[in-house]
Amino acid sequence: xxxxxxxxxxxxxxxxxxxxxxxxxxxxxxxxxxxxxxxxxxxxxxxxxxxxxxxxxxxxxxxxxxxxxxxxxxxxxxxxxxxxxxxxxxxxxxxxxxxxxxxxxxxxxxxxxxxxxxxxxxxxxxxxxxxxxxxxxxxxxxxxxxxxxxxxxxxxxxxxxxxxxxxxxxxxxxxxxxxxxxxxxxxxxxxxxxxxxxxxxxxxxxxxxxxxxxxxxxxxxxxxxxxxxxxxxxxxxxxxxxxxxxxxxxxxxxxxxxxxxxxxxxxxxxxxxxxxxxxxxxxxxxxxxxxxxxxxxxxxxxxxxxxxxxxxxxxxxxxxxxxxxxxxxxxxxxxxxxxxxxxxxxxxxxxxxxxxxxxxxxxxxxx
Length: 367
Known about the structure:
By secondary structure, this protein is an all-beta fold. It has 1 helix and 29 strands. It folds into 4 domains: about 10-90, Immunoglobulin-like; about 100-195, Cadherins (Immunoglobulin-like), CATH 2.60.40; about 205-320, Immunoglobulin-like (Sandwich), CATH 2.60.40.60; about 325-365, Cadherins (Immunoglobulin-like), CATH 2.60.40. The chain has one helix at about 145-150; strands at about 10, 25-30, 35-45, 50-55, 65-75, 80-90, 100, 105-110, 120, 125, 135-145, 150-155, 160, 175-180, 185-195, 205-210, 215, 225-230, 240-245, 250-255, 260-265, 275-280, 280-285, 295, 300, 310-315, 315-320, 330, 355. The protein starts with 9 loop residues before the first strand and ends in a 13-residue tail after the last strand. It comes from Smithornis capensis.
């Protein structure tokens, strides 16, 4: 019997035979007491008694697959004689159970560097039916196009794999609905919440806004040369950026606001010692053009990840000349011996003065 058989359905069982006659012949039937079945006895015009099995209560294969009953035929003699037959009932499956997911909501956390092709998570549903009625096919019933490009659901196993690059900085959260359908068409649904977890996959970036470049060499200390903005697309400690200062050169870094710094002079500049600075690391010393032609500096930003990532930027600072150097003669005193009959217009002596400044500031006139 299929488990969906409605109560009241009758199943003929035939009839017993008794060679005796009268009261000694077959008089009645009896059935093992049970909640699901009863007997209905019918008597034909010739006096033969036929018996039918009547379903009293709906069957449930998932609770009991087999029912074993004993049918007894009794006569009216003294002593009473009886005969028995076994009734073996197998309950076959009807698709009366929908699939049931193991969770109503699947909360999933995925690292953003999870490689493509990796198993992200698995959804699972069970069905108490059997055969095709218990075979479940999985599919996304509600999912955005962006999420569909990143996740693939295996219809047979419920495995969800990553099929595209996850990026916390692009999107931190996805939501989808999953459907499980059995072979008889019954369905179940579950929600999936996917949180993308940040990893330290972005190096800090630096942008520089020149304020005073070239900078006059007579600029006072703490003159702002440039404003530096530091950004990191990661979050938490991975996005906490610190910008540090090097040594041995006349710049220092001063915090202006969160992630913003000012590059300022730390002491007086001297174009005649150093006329240009290529900065890639922030340093804090006086500029001196006369000590070197230029200095290589590195501006470096580091985040708080493990391992930390760093970003660099370059800025070239030119020092503009100021007339801060006087001409210097090659000798402090020139002594010349001149004969008294020297001709007019004759060169008596050549004097030489040099000026460390440049351009007009370094052009020397004599008088």
